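In the design runs reported in the main text, the only information available to the sequence generator was the tokenized backbone. The following block is the verbatim input for one such run; it is reproduced so that readers can re-run the procedure and compare outputs position by position.
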């Protein structure tokens, strides 16, 4: 069987243009949807296949973090933070967000439904941006949107964080191997908050909800668009935000503070576990992933530790350390001038003298701190060796980084399937970054399946093998 693997489509609700802020979240507008491209891709791969095939949607297919709509009226009270930045991750909230996505992408679901009705298999692997797909109600809504008859429903499955295809390929979104987006307990992703269960959202996604959602000129699908140096942030602000979002620093400050507090409160909460259902849960994960219960437990042990175990890492990624240091620099300069005034009255403008002496120390620290996101590869030789020993596979396919890649890592032929979400160089959305890529695992000589990376340029009618630039 041939397996086609796509990741990082990031489907969300369509953004309505705002005349007062014409570039606000322009990347989310309907004209940038990839639905038609994916329809052409599936038609092409089916025409090229001689027998039923398998489509694996490998995480971040839906972007629950980016949906900010609210129900009217809500079935229960909504926290003020959720009114500003989008609903949380309780089951009814996740279901409402899924309804919003389906409403704007029904043609996309129709394409998938036709694909399954043709006798093919469809597998969803949960990623960090669509962790809320864990809820049974959300999965039921997705199945309903596919419009499948009962007989075809068995060819659709949802995997918690990995899937073993054909006994030879390990497929995982990859967020479990990245400290800022790892789910601390992938087997038990629920926590209790105020007596109500909700999906535990990792730091990277909380930052998207409470910071990026309030700074709509930064495109979360392109890391270069929101992870910058200090001078780059200043130039970006002056060019795009000075007039329409002059209080950006305030938006960043309270958003970063909220992200920090919520991240650690959620991280410290114990996962919801029922001792009487532990084995049933592990067995269910294994069955859906074509694995064994032992594989599930062993693969869970391969996950990296959350960055929350080192609070300084989180504080630095939020730029809170530099914010506090800047305020301390101003305070120290003020105190110096205040002390001088005890002996001789001087103008307040003399504060510029101690400030000019202290500011280089602030700059030296700021330039020394570098972003740590994706500085380490998702698949290391040591991790590849463990995955191969646990599962017996020869291939591994990840997503998450949005960087297409083919390499031999330890004993595994590794492929990162890249991304499909609309990434642009700036808020005008005129210069597309990267190209739409996907992985194919196909039988070769002797029936041995090999993994390949293909690309599907925007508007294309056929794919082509990916070649690294």
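Verbatim output:
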């Amino acid at each position: 069987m041939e397996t086609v693997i796509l990741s990082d489509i990031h489907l969300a609700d369509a953004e309505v243009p705002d005349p007062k802020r014409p570039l606000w979240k322009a990347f989310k507008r309907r004209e940038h949807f990839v639905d038609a491209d994916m329809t052409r891709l599936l038609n092409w791969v089916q025409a090229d296949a001689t027998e039923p095939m398998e489509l694996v949607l490998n995480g971040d297919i839906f972007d629950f973090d980016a949906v900010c709509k609210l129900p009217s009226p809500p079935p229960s009270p909504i926290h003020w933070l959720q009114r500003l930045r989008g609903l949380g991750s309780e089951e009814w909230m996740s279901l409402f967000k899924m309804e919003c996505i389906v409403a704007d992408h029904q043609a996309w679901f129709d394409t998938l439904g036709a694909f399954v009705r043709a006798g093919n298999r469809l597998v969803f692997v949960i990623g960090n941006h669509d962790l809320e797909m864990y809820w049974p109600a959300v999965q039921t809504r997705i199945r309903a949107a596919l419009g499948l008859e009962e007989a075809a429903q068995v060819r659709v499955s949802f995997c918690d964080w990995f899937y073993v295809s054909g006994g030879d390929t390990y497929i995982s979104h990859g967020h479990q191997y990245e400290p800022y987006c790892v789910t601390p307990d992938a087997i038990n992703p629920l926590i209790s908050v105020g007596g109500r269960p909700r999906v535990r959202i990792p730091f990277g996604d909380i930052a998207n909800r409470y910071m990026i959602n309030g700074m709509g000129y930064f495109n979360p699908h392109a890391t270069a668009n929101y992870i910058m140096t200090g001078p780059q942030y200043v130039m970006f602000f002056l060019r795009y935000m000075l007039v329409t979002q002059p209080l950006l620093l305030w938006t960043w400050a309270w958003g970063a503070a909220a992200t920090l507090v919520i991240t650690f409160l959620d991280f410290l909460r114990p996962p919801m576990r029922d001792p009487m259902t532990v084995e049933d849960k592990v067995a269910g994960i294994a069955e859906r992933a074509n694995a064994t219960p032992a594989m599930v437990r062993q693969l869970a042990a391969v996950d990296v530790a959350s960055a929350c175990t080192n609070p300084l890492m989180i504080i630095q990624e939020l730029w809170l350390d530099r914010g506090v240091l800047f305020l301390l620099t101003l305070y120290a300069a003020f105190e110096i001038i205040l002390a001088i005034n005890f002996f001789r009255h001087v103008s307040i403008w003399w504060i510029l003298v101690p400030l000019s002496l202290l500011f280089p120390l602030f700059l030296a620290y700021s330039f020394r701190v570098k972003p740590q996101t994706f500085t380490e590869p998702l698949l290391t030789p040591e991790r590849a060796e463990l995955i191969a020993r646990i599962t017996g596979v020869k291939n591994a396919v990840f997503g998450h980084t949005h960087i297409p890649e083919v390499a031999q890592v330890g004993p595994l032929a590794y492929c990162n399937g890249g991304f499909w979400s609309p990434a642009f160089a700036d808020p005008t959305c005129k210069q597309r970054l990267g190209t739409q890529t996907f992985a194919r695992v196909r039988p070769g000589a002797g029936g041995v399946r090999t993994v390949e990376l293909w690309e599907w340029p925007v508007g294309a009618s056929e794919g082509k093998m990916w070649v690294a630039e």
